[in-house]
Amino acid sequence: MAATHRVPDLGALELLLAVVRLGSVGKAAAELGVTQPAASARIRSMERQIGVALFERSPRGSRPTRAGALVAEWAQQVLDAARAMDAGIAALQERQDARLRVVASLTVAEYLMPGWLVALHEARPGTAVTLRAASSTEVAEHVRAGKADLGFVEGARTPAGLSGTVVASDRLVVVVAPRHAWARRRDGVTAEELAGTPLILRDRGSGTREVLDRALSSFGGTAPPLLQLASTTALKAAAVSGAGPVVVSELAVADELSGGRLVAVPVRDLDLGRPLRAVWPSGQHPAGPARHLLGLTRQSRA
């Protein structure tokens, strides 16, 4: 068999295609859950391995060279073939009475997972599913320990020791009761003001808290919380009662906002968007009902 020492591994090919699609090494790194320096180093290693420059770099981003575009076309064919083979192998291992263990962050478990599991039941009625809700930190621990077949987390990066893919997007919002002083502010609040105000927050270890802490880190971080609560339901109840400003998933307060029980407060110059990811142990690929559920999440995102 001919040597294939010039062919990058599948992970490198996935990175190559992500940079081509997004036009940015940084964006591709964020999507794949790696650091930008690690992604840049891997691309340079690919270029040395192949022997040609794959991208033209500029302050506006990264654009594939002619050779890079051709390699990307081949890479897509290789990845498509690998996924087809993976699906075929998984199909050999599947059983009609398969079981699926899922652990998900509260936001995903409460607002997205029900629809996905209904679709899974329709597609694979013989699958017995157990679902546990936990903080994103706990989700990662369960998946790493082999206590779940598939996990769903909130946060900017894929947790260490896991592989993952973005399955949905979400945005954190600041909400208050209609009688709160912030509800009358047409221009909202500044990031500095939000950072300096005691808020009602999720406990540490949650994806919501991680994203907020990261977003406000350049503004001195969050002030000591007014209250620290362990569930989205408790957060919403505190906000409706007028206890103070709450930072929570936009998915979780859609009904309260449309019904006028809560008011969203704009925050100037602050990005509170976040990806929601499916995760599994590094070096493995979801198989059986886990692979099927992952495919359903991707269909719902399309």
User: Helix tally?
Assistant: 12
Q: Classify the fold: give the CATH topology of the largest domain.
A: D-Maltodextrin-Binding Protein, domain 2
Helicity, as a percent range: 40-55%
CATH architecture of the largest domain: 3-Layer(aba) Sandwich
| Outline | globular
Number of strands: 13
Strand content: 15-25%
What's the N-to-C terminus distance? 40 Å
Computed over alpha carbons, the radius of gyration is 22 Å
- Give a quick account of the main beta sheet: strands, pairing sense, barrel closure: 7 strands, mixed
Keywords: DNA-binding, Transcription, Transcription regulation
Protein name: LysR family transcriptional regulator
Pfam family, one: HTH_1
InterPro entries: LysR_HTH_N (IPR000847), LysR_subst-bd (IPR005119), WH-like_DNA-bd_sf (IPR036388), WH_DNA-bd_sf (IPR036390)
Task: Summarize the structure in words.
- This is LysR family transcriptional regulator.
- Belongs to the LysR transcriptional regulatory family.
- Residues 8-65 form the HTH lysR-type domain.
- It comes from Actinomadura rugatobispora.
- InterPro entries: LysR_HTH_N (IPR000847), LysR_subst-bd (IPR005119), WH-like_DNA-bd_sf (IPR036388), WH_DNA-bd_sf (IPR036390).
- The chain is an alpha/beta fold and 302 residues long.
- It has three domains: 10-92, Arc Repressor Mutant, subunit A, CATH 1.10.10.10; 97-154 and 284-301, D-Maltodextrin-Binding Protein, domain 2 (3-Layer(aba) Sandwich); 169-274, D-Maltodextrin-Binding Protein, domain 2 (3-Layer(aba) Sandwich), CATH 3.40.190.
- Helices cover 44% and strands 22% of the residues.
- It contains twelve helices and 13 strands.
- The strands form four sheets. Strands 3, 4, 5, 6, 10, 11 and 13 form a seven-stranded mixed beta sheet that branches.
- Helix 1 (10-22) packs across helix 2 (25-32) and helix 1 crosses helix 4 (66-93).
- The longest helix has 28 residues, at 66-93.
- It is globular and about 65 Å long.
- The chain starts with 9 loop residues before the first helix and ends with a helix.
- The model has no long low-confidence stretch (mean pLDDT 90).
